[in-house]
Amino acid sequence: MNNDYLDPSNALNMPEMADMTFAMDFLIRAKEGVRNTATALTETISPDARALLRAQLYQGIAMHQEITDLMISKKWFHPYGLQEQFQLDMLGALNAVQIGGMDLFPGDTSRKGMFDRTPDE
Q1: Cα–Cα–Cα angle for 34, 37, 38, nearest 5°?
Q2: How far, in Å, CA of 66 to CA of 62, rounded?
Q3: DSSP labels for 22-48?
Q4: Which of 11, 90, 97, 110 has the highest local Cβ count within 10 Å?
Q5: Measured between alpha carbons, how far is 76 from 25 in angstroms, rounded to an integer?
Q6: Stated pTM of the model
Q7: pLDDT at res. 3
Q8: Between vectors from CA 51 to CA 48 and to CA 52, what angle results, nearest 5°?
């Protein structure tokens, strides 16, 4: 990864990598929602609340399936290919480490000279 992150040519494939990251985060959150709803369902005694939670659980499972299908079709997720998924996860981890190592903020944060006029003028 090039440290010149301001140069647009170094942003090649970044939109797809961002989409893949967002989709994986969405998938994880959908799974958490299913788990939390299932837990709530087992702890609820009201028939009306149980019916509501059951419907919400089915919707959550359907949403998780839709996200999974999308990610598989885009080759962002390989649930049946451990080696491919491992390579994808390693690439994501490497990119995260490289982005974390970038000097995104300059050492000199003085803004003097960046404006048309200064208050002293």
Answers
A1: 85
A2: 6
A3: HHHHHHHHHHHHHHHHHHHHHT---HH
A4: 11
A5: 12
A6: 0.71
A7: 56
A8: 85
The count of structural domains within the chain is: 1
The answer to whether position 95 is within a domain reads yes
Distance CA 25, CA 33 (A): 12
DSSP state of 119: T
Structure tokens at 102: 């970038």
Among 31, 32, 118, 108, residue whose Cα is nearest residue 66:
31
CA distances from 117 to 31, 43, 105, 107, 120 (A): 54, 65, 24, 23, 8
pLDDT digits (tens, 9 = 90+) for 13-41: 777 888 888 999 999 999 999 999 999 99
- In a domain? residue 87: yes
| 6 within domain boundaries | no
Q: Is 2 contained in some domain?
A: no
Torsion sign over Cα 37, 73, 87, 14: negative
Q: What does the alpha-carbon distance between residue 19 and residue 51 come to, in Å, rounded to a whole number?
A: 35
Reading the block at residue 5, the tokens are 């992150």
